[in-house]
Each structure stands twice: as C-alpha cells, then as structure tokens.
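Exam revision sheet. Question 4 asks you to relate a sequence to its structure. Input first:
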Amino acid sequence: MRPRFRSSSLVPAGFIVEHLDIGIGRIGLVVRSGAAVTACPNCRTSSHRIQSRYRRRAADLPLGGRRVELQVVVRRFRCDAATCERKIFAERFPDGFLPSFARRTARLEQIVHHLGLALGGRPGAGLAQRLMLPVSRDTLLHVIRRRAATPSDPLGVIGIDDFAWRRNHRYGTLVCDLERRRIVALLPDREQATAQTWLKQNTSIQIVARDRGGGYGEAIARALPQAIQVADRWHLMENASRGFLDAVRKSMRQVREVVGAATLDPALLTAAEHIQYEGYLRREEADAAIRALAEAGIPIRRIGQRLGHSRKVVRAVLRGERTDVFRVRQSSLDAFLPWLDAQWDAGSRNATELWRMAKAQGFRGSLRVVGECATRRRRAEQANIERLQRVPSARTLARLLTTDRDRLTKAETLTVAAVEEGVPALVEAREVVSAFRTMVRGNEPGRLEGWLRRAEASLVASFARGIGQDRSAVQAAIMLPWSNGQTEGQVTKLKLVKRQMYGRGKIDLLQARLIGLSP
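Answer key, structure tokens:
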C-alpha cells in the first residue's frame, strides 16, 4: 500500500499545517507549532498561558516550480515568574527552522548562502530567479558578509604570497593554511608592516613557505624569529633557468664569433629575418654609443638622458643582454610542427603541396610561412659548420644547450657543439645549473655549500649570490616537503572569484567568498 502524502511533510517535525493554498507560481502554507508550552526567553520559565496570536511571513524552499511562502502562526504567552521583567513574550522557534526576525527559513538561507558563495551577486540573483528563490543580488552579498566566518584553528604551516588588485599598481597578500588546504586571511597590501602585524597575532606558526622576494622574508624574521622559512621550489627552478639564460645573453658575442656568423649574408635571409637583421644593425650602433659613454665614466641616468634611452635599456646593454640578432616570435605553424615533421620524414618536400595539405588539416597561415619553414629544414639537412649563417637567439640557444642531443636537428647539433667547444664558460654554467636542480630534486642539502663555492666562479654567480643570501630558506626547501605551490593555486582561485565580481569586490566580501568556498 502506498504511503499517503501529507501536507505536514513539507515542514519540519513539530509543526502542523493548518491550511494549504496553491496558486499560479505560488504555494502558501499556514503552519503553527505543535508545542503546548514554551519557555520565556529571559528567565526560561515554561508558560502555557496564551495572550494573543499573530502571523509571521517567511519564504521557504520552492516546490514544483512555485515559490513557497509560510505564514507561521506565532503565539504570545504570559510569563508567570514574579521576578521576570518580561510579562508577555512571543514564542521562539528552533534556529534550524526559523531563527528570530528571519524572513527566510534556515534551509532556504543555507541555499542562498551557497548560491552567493558560488556565483556572487548579479549572476547568483539571475539563477535564483530561475530557481524560484525570492532573493536579490544585494541580499546575496549581505548574506555572504553576515555568515562570513574566520578560521580560528591554530596555524602551524602556512604559505604566503601576493596577488594583484591591479597589476603593476596595487597588490594584496594571501595567506594559506597548507595543512588544511584553505585560505585563512587576505591582507589589503603587501607591505612588510602589514604582514608583520598579522604574523605577530598568530604566534603558533612554525613553518612559512614563501617566494624568493625579500619583503615577506624580513617580515617573517621580525615577527616570528623561531619560524622556519621555506623557499618555493618552483621559483628556485625558474630562477636557475633565468640565471642560465642571463649567462647565455652575456656570452652572445663570443657565440657569434665561434659559430662564424658575426657577419650575416642578407641574401640568404628571409624577408622577416632581413627586417630583424636591419634592426639589429641599428641597435649595435646605439649599443656602441652607450658602451663608449659608460667607459668614459658617465652615470647610467645621464647616458639615458643624452641618448634618449631609458635606464632599463642602458642597463641591459651594459650587462650584455641586448645582443640577439633574431627575436623569436610565435608562429601560426607551431601547432602543426609535429604533423609537418611526419610529412617531411615521409618524403614530402614541396612547400606548396605541404601548404595545401596543412590547409586541409585546419592551418590558416599563408604559403610564405610554410615555404620559409621548408627552406630552413632543407638548409638544416645540408648543414656544415662553415656554412652556418644564422645564430639562434639567446633564449633558443639556452634551450638547445639544455636539450638532449637526440632531439636536435643536424644544424642544431653542430651549433651546440661549436658553442660548447668555443665557449667553455657556458658549459660550466650549464653544469652548475644542472647540479643545482639535481640537488633540489634529490633532497641533498649537504651539497649546497660546495655548490655555492663552485657557482661563485661561474657565469651564474649572480644567481648563486641570491641563493647564498637566502641559504636557510633554500636548505629548508630541499629538506622539507612544504612548498608554496598550493598557495599559488589559491591565488588562481582568487583571480577567478575576483573576475566574477568584475573586480569590484571589496576585501571583506572577497575573503568571505574564498573562505566559504574552501573545504
């Protein structure tokens, strides 16, 4: 026998449905409490003497595509306690059903809160309207702020990193609990004093993972001198790669002399390469003037004012970082290079035919792009160290020097071999960087001191000095399992939530949403 549906099933236990009114887009329920007595909110004395009744309206979860409105019959009681200041009081309902002064039931309030956390104000209000939930965008934001909770558990291991309110203009600070994998605080800026004040309020912190910037490191050292600082391993690897790239840039003049391409033959260049080569010749004239003034003892700022260059450009010239002949740009053919390699190995060498086949695969570039690529491949197969005419850019050369030989073409292999023979300092820098990566991946902090002594005499001495200044944090990064990668992921989540609010969310609302979304 089927169980009979009862209207009382629509409301929590302990309440009785007196009347049910079903209209177009609306369901009305008149309900009352089934309790005979209730307690005074002041003295907690039970009373059964009813003074009067009134009706209280509250929204509930939708049903069958209709809004549900509850009319709760509220009774007023007399308090019989002689010492109680309140003589008449209204009955209270459980907070799990209808809190005091609430216009929504607790279960609807929870849905509204989660809707606001997930979507924010305007998008959440739009979805709520389709779900037949009577709530506005302002109400959603008000509920998020009112129900915001700050984690109160003692912190042991945290990660700290900055995020951009507006890139290159204003930044904030995000603090993540690495043990519980959740955000615990957002700070309005990334000043040392702000981070230091927050850290002093959380003295239980024992380990702090951070990036390689010095600002947070100084704040941690002042606020929590007993805490262990851990440098982020990803930043260590990235800094090592950048250090080797800087070493290659400083050695580009020697590289061009070794490869034999200090003077290029313009007749062998493509149209795009010819334009870049002319720009390189103009840069060489400007760079020579900058170096001449620097040798005369003129300060960098005065050089920039006299020649019309920024201080950044002048520094790059003096450091040997503006010596690339060709600048690598992203090509529309990059996505089709694996397919093109397969066709080339299969014997298809005609550029026009390759272009037609590539168009059938979805390529939208011109015939010139495929033709230049085919020309380079044809020259690469006939490569000879005496005939090499083009030196790769510093970034490309750094990649070639750190790539396995079996993954290079014949021309690339010859170029790398010539550089390794003619510029041994680059080979030493590559080995130093490789040793650092092996040390970090192998969790071998005991090799750090020896590596620092070796690196100080190489082209990556600047990178080594930075590691030496942050020695304790680097050693902790090698030994301990903690890192700042999780914090970086939380920053990505913050960017998503901030963009959902079109960048107009204030820090309290942003923090309430992020902490509420955390598990």
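Marking note for examiners. The longest strand covers residues 50-63.
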